[in-house]
Amino acid sequence: MPQLTSRERFLAALQSALADHQLVKLTLGKYRGPDASLKNLSVRPIELKSGPHLSFVWRHTTRDLTKNVAPARAYAELEKLIGDPFRDAHLFTVGQTGQIETAEDGSARVRFKAAAAASPPAPATHDRTKPRLIDPHAGWLHALAITDAAGQPRTGQSAKFRQIQKFAEILQSLLAETSPAAAPLRIADMGSGKGYLTCATAALLGDRAQVTGIERRKELVDTCNRVAAEHHLTGLTFKVGDIAQTAPRLGDLDVLIALHACDTATDDALLAGIRAGATTLVVAPCCQQELRPQLQAPSVLAPALRHGIFQERHAEFVTDALRALLLEAVGFETKVFEFVSTEHTAKNLMLVAQRAKPDQTPQLNPAAVANLRAFARFYGIKQQTLARHLQIDLAAD
Fold this sequence. Notes:
alpha/beta, Rossmann fold, 2 domains, seven-stranded antiparallel beta sheet, 12 helices, 26% strand, globular
């Protein structure tokens, strides 16, 4: 029997791990394909309602794209990627780790070693206990009527509970990239509403952060301040105010959060974060209506856009894409992704912007401004709130 090549040995190990549910993680790097923005690919097993899948996370320079792939198709897709265009691959299974490195001439070398403290993976079932960054038994969750005394989501609150946990995961990951553990963080949540995610932020970070929630409804502010005090969320304060009026009085910030601030209130919040020197901006836009009257879509789209639902989604796309381009024009790197599943809320898009050079004063990027204006010109957009705030003329040549 002919001896297996290095690539065949690696692929055999991957195929076995998938078949036996032993895969922990697979990472592909040293990309040498046509997409200059693509950096690497990470693959891990996940459990969906429809059954086990593999989550493919394509990491680009300014965004991450996630695709969930059925196990039956996953191996076939990965086989096409390992070696070319990805020259490097790391395999992590329950019993071993492996690495394959592929040279330009196609030759490869592979190494395997036993995994430390190997143990069987947890059973793939929806009933297993998931680790939570936010303790389901936290008193403030109970006080805000999210969970009951047993730490279970109340009737009708399961989606909100999942949203809180997902937000905590996202925020923890973002801060790990940008904020030293010892640095005291100054965080503002603009339009904090009932305070679910503001309290989650304070609970997640504890003494690491001073968190301020801004909400114009006094009755909500009073309730949230009482809950924060009763449940020892130190460093958390809620204030009555409008985003545009309160933002200039906040002082310097590290993180600006605005989830479901309606229409141009999202733009006001983004400006507040930029002016306050925030390193990280986290927004989930909603009710994007400002640009809809201006949009002049290409004639080929007119038959489709006679439907109101397509007009609405088209306006949402153009609005939030323009915001991402505006933030890139003033020195941020942006990511746009699905916050939570659409089955929980249709308003599930999250835009994250992080300063590319935190220690430098933001300056206009000419190439990014050119891209921004070309995009605006394509859709006939002459003005937009964030662009006006930033004094960027969208109609200029």
